[in-house]
Amino acid sequence: MVNRTKLLILGGALGAKVAAYLVWRPAMLRWGTQGEEAVEPLPGDGHVPRPAFQSTRAITIDVPPERVWPWLVQMGIYRAGLYTHDRVERAMFHARYVEGKHSATRIHPELQDLKVGDLVPYGGGVYATVAEIEPNRHLVAGEAFVLRPLPGNRTRLIVRCRGMGYISAAAQGAAADAPALTKAIAFALHRVPGAMLLARGMDFFIGDPLHHYMEVGMLRGIKQRAEGTYDGGHAAVVEP
Questions:
Q1: Contacting residues for 4 by C-beta, under 8 A, at least 6 apart
Q2: Within a domain: residue 90?
Q3: Cβ contact 47:140 at 8 Å
Q4: How far apart are CA 157 and CA 84, in angstroms?
Q5: Cα dist. 91→66, 94, 170, 217 in Å?
Q6: CB 3.0-4.6 Å disulfide test: which of 33, 71, 171, 193 passes with 37?
Q7: Overall domain count for the chain
Q8: What domain range includes position 70?
Q9: 9 in a domain, yes or no?
Q10: Mean confidence (pLDDT) of the chain
Q11: CB of 146 within 8 A of CB of 137?
Q12: pLDDT above 90 for 123
């Protein structure tokens, strides 16, 4: 009887948490957006015409687009980093950056020559191909980064992610040098019945919230660096 009561309590608590997440999820997927930003067409949408999920997040930065753009161009694991939670990246992907153990705090001229067809490393053996690039306007490499000028020399940075799932995408898009675990996941997804459904469930309840946590950190990190207000222990240098 006691065990049954405990199971009912645990089940009720879990159900409440799931319900709370389902209520919060729509706001999570459009964090920071205004007006029609979360649903309007953006560059890069056509590369994934029927996504399993879509998120759109945005932030206002108090400098013009040309001051934000260099930070975007140099992004990537083993490059300038993703300006988010570096400790999490190091734990998950053994990430290293051009400045060592932390994402870049200054513009690196040697990382500014990005062009269509280049590969941007996202960690875990996953690379995003640069599909579109228009300086000071938008960059599409896995996700779409859109810059819109605002009055007062400010910028609206909108980031949209459309895809088929983080776990499945990471496994299916793994490079030859991907970790053994990633390759094992890829094998399971293709061979084990029901594995893809399980992967999507993990994406829905684990991958999506983790992506939200990392992406919000990235948006705030870009804003702080572009504005020269980053206080993460390393002085930001805005100009090259």
A1: none
A2: yes
A3: yes
A4: 15
A5: 33, 6, 17, 16
A6: 33
A7: 1
A8: 29-227
A9: no
A10: 86
A11: yes
A12: no
Mean local confidence (pLDDT), 215-235: 85
Tokens representing 52?
């399993």
End-to-end C-alpha distance for the chain, whole angstroms: 68
pLDDT value of position 175: 47
pLDDT in tens, 172-218: 544 455 556 556 666 666 666 666 677 778 888 988 999 999 999 99
What is the rounded distance in angstroms from the CA atom of residue 221 to the CA atom of residue 229? 10
CA proximity to 163, closest of 31, 76, 56 = 56
β-bridge pairing 53-61 and 119-123 = unpaired
Scanning the chain, the segments in alpha helix (DSSP H) are 2-29, 65-73, 86-93, 166-172, 180-191, 195-202, 208-227
Instruction: Give 164's contacts (C-beta < 8 A, 6+ positions apart).
Output: 48, 51, 52
CA dist., res. 51 & res. 161, Å (int): 9
- Is residue 159 within 8 A of residue 141, CB to CB? The reply is no
pLDDT digits (tens, 9 = 90+) for 71-119: 999 999 999 999 999 999 888 888 889 999 899 999 999 999 999 999 9
Percent of the chain topping pLDDT 90: 59
Rounded CA-CA distance 214/77 in Å is 13
Q: Which of 119, 117, 147, 122 is nearest to 132 (CA)?
A: 117
Q: What is the CATH number of the domain that holds 99?
A: 3.30.530
